[in-house]
Design a protein that fits this description.
By secondary structure, the chain is an alpha/beta fold. The protein has a single domain, classed as NAD(P)-binding Rossmann-like Domain (Rossmann fold, 3-Layer(aba) Sandwich). The chain contains 8 helices and 7 strands, in the order βαβαβαβαβαβααβα. A 7-stranded parallel sheet has the order 3-2-1-4-5-6-7, sandwiched between helices. Strand 1, helix 1 and strand 2 form a beta-alpha-beta unit. The protein is globular. About 45% of the residues are buried.
């Protein structure tokens, strides 16, 4: 299916890599004009160049730290100046500082909250005035399976992601009268550069992550950015025209049926159980 988002304008934060990159590309493939928001100029420009080379329309105006409200508002203003509207906002910029030995617990809390919680808040409220004028818009927020179903403690990160879900349902309730839909995606273990911040890449890490998947994920595998891009397209398109305020797990069954996976860990040493 093509042109599901024809002539629509989408802003994708965290669009230079991982889930954000996959979302930016699928939006462009479906006809949207995509604005990439990211701190990494080199990677963001590479994504823009790939989209444009494949016949799409993409822009990267300048590096943006989403924890800086002025920078967020600047890129929104530039988007409206060039394209005249904003139809879609996908908020997928995120970062964890858990376990950083150079930070105190307080510093970790402040930095994690600034990017994941305040950054999401700033992005959403920056586009709302334009969407209200249009009487239409779609906002897709990234939370985490771990916000309410943690498999390991990550206090600051999971707390911030839980706040994002609360923001989603509150915005959905308030903005429905303007024709603006707000939904949330709760990814499980997705293989992205995000993991590079938590542990060193290599065969040992890959084995560990696969082991986690086999034990904790009912579908038995790790997710990919493309696994998240599909639901993000659903929320951005008319296929979800009667859906707002939904926080959807995209986690291979974690969250919904996590207790089953947990109960099967001891069976046959595989973490799976025959029915």
């Amino acid at each position: 299916m093509k042109d599901m988002l024809k002539d629509q304008v989408a802003i994708v934060t965290g669009g230079a890599s991982g889930m954000g990159e996959a979302i930016a590309k699928i939006y462009a493939q479906e006809g949207a004009k995509v604005v990439i928001v990211d701190l990494n100029t080199e990677k963001a420009q590479k994504v823009v160049d790939e989209i444009n080379a494949n016949g799409g329309i993409a822009r990267f105006y300048h590096p943006v730290d989403v924890s800086d409200r002025a920078q967020v508002e600047s890129v929104v203003e530039k988007t409206i100046e060039e394209f005249g509207r904003i139809d879609i906002l996908a908020v997928f910029a995120g970062k964890t500082f858990d376990g950083d030995p150079n930070l105190t617990q307080q510093e970790c809390l402040e930095k994690t909250t600034a990017v994941n919680q305040w950054g999401t808040y700033y992005c959403c409220f920056a586009v709302v005035p334009q969407m209200k004028k249009q009487k239409s818009g779609k906002i897709i927020i990234c939370s985490s399976n771990g916000a309410f179903n943690p498999t390991a403690p990550a206090y600051e990160y999971h707390m911030a992601k839980g706040a994002c879900e609360s923001l989603c349902v509150n915005l959905a309730m308030d903005l429905a009268r303007y024709g603006i839909r707000v939904n949330c995606i709760k990814p499980g273990p997705i293989v992205t550069p995000f993991w590079d911040e938590l542990m060193e890449a290599g065969e040992e890490r890959d084995k560990m992550l696969q082991g986690i998947a086999e034990i904790e994920v009912p579908l038995g595998r790790l997710g990919t950015p493309e696994d998240v891009a599909g639901p993000a397209l659903f929320f951005a398109s008319d296929l979800s025209s009667y859906v707002t305020g939904l926080c959807m797990y995209v986690a291979g069954g974690m969250g919904y049926v996590y207790s089953y996976a947990q109960s099967s860990i001891a069976h046959a040493g595989t973490g799976r159980r025959d029915i």
